[in-house]
What we know:
Blueprint: E1 10-14, H1 19-34, E2 38-43, H2 47-52, E3 60-63, H3 74-94, E4 99-102, H4 109-117, E5 121-126, H5 133-138, E6 144-147, H6 150-156, E7 161-163, H7 177-184, E8 192-195, H8 203-217, E9 224-228, H9 234-244, E10 248-251, H10 257-263, E11 266-269, H11 273-282, E12 286-288, H12 298-308, E13 313-314, H13 322-334, H14 336-346, H15 354-368, H16 390-402, H17 404-416
Parallel strand pairs: 1-2, 1-4, 2-3, 4-5, 5-6, 6-7, 8-9, 8-11, 9-10, 11-12, 12-13
Helix pairs in contact: 1-15, 3-4, 3-17, 7-10, 8-9, 8-13
Amino acid sequence: MKPGDETKPCIAIACGGTGGHLFPGLAVGSQLLNLGCDVSLLVSPKDVDQQAVKSARDMQVFTLPAVALQNGNRLAFLRGFWNSLRASRKLFKQRRPDAVLAMGGFTSAPPVLAARLIGAKAFLHESNTIPGRANRWLARFIRCGFVGFEQAGALLGAKRVSVTGTPVRSEFQTRDSAACCQALGLDPMKPVLLVIGGSQGASGINELIVAALPLLVQRGLNWQWVHLTGPKDVTKVAAVYDKLGVRAIVQPFMENLAVAMGAATACVSRAGASSLAEIAAMRLPSLLVPFPHAADNHQFHNAHAFANSGAARFLEQKEAQPEIVATLVLDLVENNGARSSIQSALAQWHAPDAAREIAGTMLRVIMEGDSAIEGGEEKSSKLQAPSSRESSSTKYQAVLRGGLGIWVFWVFGCFTSA
């Protein structure tokens, strides 16, 4: 980390691996900048990270070695974890951060542990209903955990938990639909259906839409489509729209997703927590098709929470026959009353102050110590009492400081066990 103004608090945000981790981290980083902090982003080498951080203004960006467990290759995971931990420690020697915020995923673990080795304060944010393995394990080392869904707090196991919601970038807010359509070259007088599968696309959703599209075209609907396929399927999907003579913008991804969401009448989407937070902020009626292989099936539970509150339609991929998809999408686009009801329900899921609340709590702890998040309703009205893990945290910190090599192998066992 490059030397900066030593009078400013220095915060590192570990947010790489997926857009769902990175974009909320960017939102918190922007708030920290507004509060006078120096901010560094720690990301993975993945293309989604490298593309997204191009929009990070006034933040230092550092790429750490990847640590994700892929294809059961545990030796590569251990090597990546160790290299990432060493890189984090080297980085923090250049300038010691006052705090590190982990946004979830395996890439967050080494920076948090490196921070603890030098005595910096650690925090994490869990955006899903079911906390991931990395966050569950890291929870014992942090000062406070922030969660997007209330039910995640009890499962996280942190000493202190604050229900903040999931941060979204400032551009995700209700917009003038006609202006957004014009920006995309679409007709503001015709409905627009947006199809998105998360930051890297979703072949499952692409296949569902391609299968349902002829049924919708047979109805003579005068719709327009914006379909973000991810990099693998763009040519194949574009060919289907062309063959059917449907007006569509088909791209692997779109940098300014907020414009596409602002133009959309309705949306078909996966159910990652970051995507849901953006959908709520934009008040966009959506059909949610959770990724069936998500860890702990967390997308199913995210979507179920939205659907139960009336804030979305919900369909499991295994049940998504073309006729069912076409019927649900048709109702979303053509039924004004249904869309209005969903938009009203989405308001409860929008947390416009999430990034500001996370940034503010971190700064209070840096400046005031743990008293900033204890015993003061005005300081932390949502914080819970310490969990049973609090008494054991010093034991793990001793292991952390006393035997790093043995400890890393223990981490490896925790992360890779079934």
